[in-house]
TrEMBL record, chains A, B:
This is LacI family transcriptional regulator. One of its GO terms (molecular function) is DNA-binding transcription factor activity. InterPro entries: HTH_LacI (IPR000843), LacI/GalR-like_sensor (IPR046335), Lambda_DNA-bd_dom_sf (IPR010982), Peripla_BP_I (IPR028082). Pfam families: LacI (PF00356), Peripla_BP_3 (PF13377). Keywords: DNA-binding, Transcription, Transcription regulation. It comes from Rhizobium grahamii.
Length: 347, 347
DNA sequence: CTGAAAGCGCTTACAG
DNA sequence: CTGAAAGCGCTTACAG
């Protein structure tokens, strides 16, 4: 005997009202050709009984689970909270639930995570791939959020343009020598951002790039980045490719007696939760997570409806590149021309 | 006509092998009284066909969805990544999927989030309640992660003991005047931590508590905490109730020329992702998220199995208080007695 | 406008 | 050891 579901079901409502289940179903879904008075009575009775429709029954009948999957490369990623929140909101708005899966570690774990989601019957999924990983289509529609330069990408922030905005901002502050600080030279996102920065430098500016991962391989984890020395060499701006690196740079500079922003500027990317809170607050280029999530989910849902839930397709979106927004919180720099004024956040 | 599910089902496997669906089901689930040779043949054929069992069918029949819910007070919370990762891992290990819900904002939103999960058929859920919110039992088993002093709590880190460890550590470094920095005086977690700190001070130490939320109400967002002045007043240790506040304190001190840890110590809680990365790295008391998640999920699953999925119960655990671990990264302080040595992380 | 009936895919007593 | 059958709760053509 199947375990009883405690709550009332359609049939209970039907018999208790002396009508058929079909009519109850129609009334509740609003699709039906049911007289308004009966429909009203049914709705009332249903809510009185605390009726909650069974997803299982519905899913079995319609073939749609009403659930999407979210696969993260590494859930501990500081960007994750905003992304997950945005995805959850967009999905809920579209009437879907969100099942999470952490593809921590290697590519194998990612594949496993994807399979788990498939087994749970997701109709489609959003994947933020591991660095430089290619998604081999799963057996359901897949939306990929990465960089525009990732093949098969569905939607992404315009990291390149974000980098360009950073460079323009630094140029206006009068900086000449920029140190770009990245973590991983293999990351598509970081490369796009760095490329954008370089492309936005004016003729009299120059940049060098420091990859922390390489440095740490040589000198050990948590080693000094040697930024104070860079200041002595003439660098006045430190453009990190993520706020996490920017924070590391900022605290190291301050520890070594470099006053920010008076002696050097520090910029980041992503507008992580603490970026506005530290002193001085970080100038940063932020993704519009809400919009990105909306586009990803909307395209995903459209594809699901067009192709059916169980076909493996890489989803494409009309807009695949969402502009990044520069948030200026350090509005002066070592060489800021006095006549320039900037829009800052807290004023 | 119900929309066809593309993949093979039990019946397809059965007919193609000339056996009954019951036998296939039994063979695949391993429960059956099926001869090993037949079972092996069936398993082989199933995997050949790429058979993926239908959760919907199973759920409808058994009354269990195989899914748990995770309700977060504010998904953008910096603690969330570690928690979600730990929960996802524990749930996956227990054979469950995890549906997320963000109860951003008010209590009403929290209730709504809970209802959404119920509608999706979760068998139980883990809730991290909003500050000082009481969970009125939903119509399924609920495990609550908060403070031990929260009524109806299932499992929590021992925030009080964490605070005590921080105090002991500061005492050993020779600090006499401690400024405790919190965000919200209404938070159970923060109050437990602060209480622990105070309880761990020795007779010749004294502490004052600064609540940022109150300060900002008076002076505006992003206002200075005035910590440099506190240093001049004789405070040498700043014990923040979360790494986020610790970071704010650290950067403000550094900006104002206070060298950390030579002139003042800064400690935090939670070991957030950037805590080891900044300069100087933060001394902090960390929760064992893995263990907390494990206990929460295990107790939840046990309760589900005991009471059935659709009963509203507040889950209790055998161990409801998990010790916090002190991670010492600033091993010296302004007044550190030379003869003391500390275990530090990077050495 | 309303109802009887079929069937989505699965599991589980029960009979053989 | 294997199979026939019932039924979980729902939706949807179809008939009335």
């Amino acid at each position: 005997m199947p375990s009883a579901r405690p709550g009332p079901n359609l049939s209970r409502i039907a018999t208790s009202l002396g009508v058929s289940v079909a009519t109850v179903s129609n009334a509740l879904s609003g699709k039906g050709r049911v007289s308004e008075s009966l429909a009203e009575k049914i709705r009332e009775h249903a809510s009185e009984l605390g009726y909650v429709p069974s997803q299982a029954g519905r899913a079995l009948r319609t073939g749609r689970s009403g659930v999407l999957g979210l696969v993260l490369p590494d859930i501990a990623n500081p960007l994750f909270p905003k992304l997950a929140q945005a995805i959850e909101f967009a999905a809920t708005t579209a009437g879907y639930g969100v099942l999470i899966a952490d593809s921590r570690g290697d590519v194998a774990a990612q594949t496993e995570a994807i399979n788990r989601l498939i087994e749970r019957g997701v109709e489609g999924m959003v994947i933020v791939p591991r660095r430089a990983t290619r998604i081999s289509a799963a057996s359901c529609p897949v939306a990929v959020i990465d960089t525009a330069s990732t093949p098969g990408n569905t939607v992404a922030a315009d990291h390149w343009q974000g980098g360009r905005d950073i460079a323009t901002h630094l140029a206006e502050l009068g900086h000449k020598r920029i140190l770009i600080i990245g973590n991983n030279p293999e990351s598509n996102v970081q490369n796009d951002r760095a490329g954008g920065i370089r492309s936005g430098l004016t003729g009299d500016m120059q940049s060098t790039t420091l990859w922390i991962e390489r440095l740490e391989r040589d000198q050990g984890n948590g080693c000094s980045l040697g930024l104070a020395e860079k200041v002595r060499e003439g660098y006045t701006a430190f453009a990190a490719l993520s706020d996490l690196q920017a924070l590391r740079a900022l605290t190291e500079l301050q520890r070594d007696g470099i006053v920010v922003p008076d002696m050097a500027s520090v910029t980041g990317f992503d507008d992580l939760i603490w970026s506005p809170v530290i002193t001085p607050a970080l100038t940063t280029a932020a993704m519009d997570m809400r919009l990105i999530a909306e586009i990803a989910i909307e395209s995903l849902v459209r594809t699901i409806q067009a192709t059916g839930p169980r076909e493996g397709v890489l989803v494409t979106a009309e807009t695949d590149r969402v502009p990044m927004q520069l948030i200026v919180r350090q509005s002066s720099g070592p060489a800021a021309p006095a006549h320039l004024t900037y829009k800052t956040e807290n004023s």
